[in-house]
């Protein structure tokens, strides 16, 4: 098998895919909450258009796209949310292309939002001004939203995003501890809580807080569920499947271990199992 030699590019792409996966897993079930949190929009009715690909030169599915009905737009309008971890100078051109195609496809008003979850506050070009036309989209920075808004949420899916919000006078350790306490309050000591912890560990890397998150969560959640055979079997199977897929795509063992939060030795064990399976076949 030919190895992937473009390590930095592959790593960035892999990490972006993981962040994208966490965002979609968390906010798809609570889309209306997300819509109000980031855009202040309340809808009477929402029709999801997920799975819709915007046909451009590079076909791409928006992170979130829906047709919503409000008092202002009783016939409906299209809202599109894109979550970004990095700044791109070409963002405005991709957004205007998306706007034009979505407008043509549904023949409804289209409103677009970029939610920046990366670090810092880069300056996005959000407008295109020409003598004969004008276009704009909205950018919201998750780092500017007070972490209390997420910590007070009734949805565990949203609570974990406090780690990317504005900490105010709190330290990172204090915010992470509050997230863990809130998850425990909402979900109890269950396997579901552990799944949210996994997601929290992934997105905490966007603020270089993976070590703090790992330590605090390990200290707080070392309890009986880790001895539950159903939990252990499910978690190990899921991690092994992820490792197998990444190995098959040529990712380096060290990158896989770092992204999934496992040891290189564990990755090597899975790789050895894969070899034995092929040998039996």
Mean pLDDT: 84
Helix content: 40-55%
The class by helix and strand makeup works out as alpha/beta
Number of helical segments with 4 or more residues: 11
Euclidean distance between termini CA atoms: 18 Å
Spatial strand order of the main sheet: 1-2-3-4-7
The rounded Rg comes to 21 Å
* Share in β-strands: 5-15%
Estimate the global geometry from the Cα principal axes. Answer: globular
Low-confidence stretches: 1-5
List the defining traits of the structure above.
single chain, globular, 281 residues, 5-stranded mixed beta sheet, disordered N terminus, alpha/beta, 50% helix, 7 strands, two-stranded antiparallel sheet
Characterize the structure shown.
By secondary structure, the protein is an alpha/beta fold. Helix content is 50%, strand content 13%. Helix 9 runs antiparallel to helix 10 and helix 10 crosses helix 11. It starts with 6 loop residues before the first helix and ends with a helix.
Question: How is this fold's topology laid out?
Answer:
Elements (H helix, E strand, L loop, with lengths): L6 H21 L3 H9 L5 E4 L15 E6 L7 E8 L6 H16 L3 E7 L10 E4 L2 E4 L1 E4 L5 H5 L4 H4 L12 H16 L3 H14 L5 H11 L8 H20 L4 H8 L3 H17 L1
Parallel strand pairs: 3-4, 4-7
Antiparallel strand pairs: 1-2, 2-3, 5-6
Helix pairs in contact: 6-7, 6-8, 7-8, 9-10, 9-11, 10-11
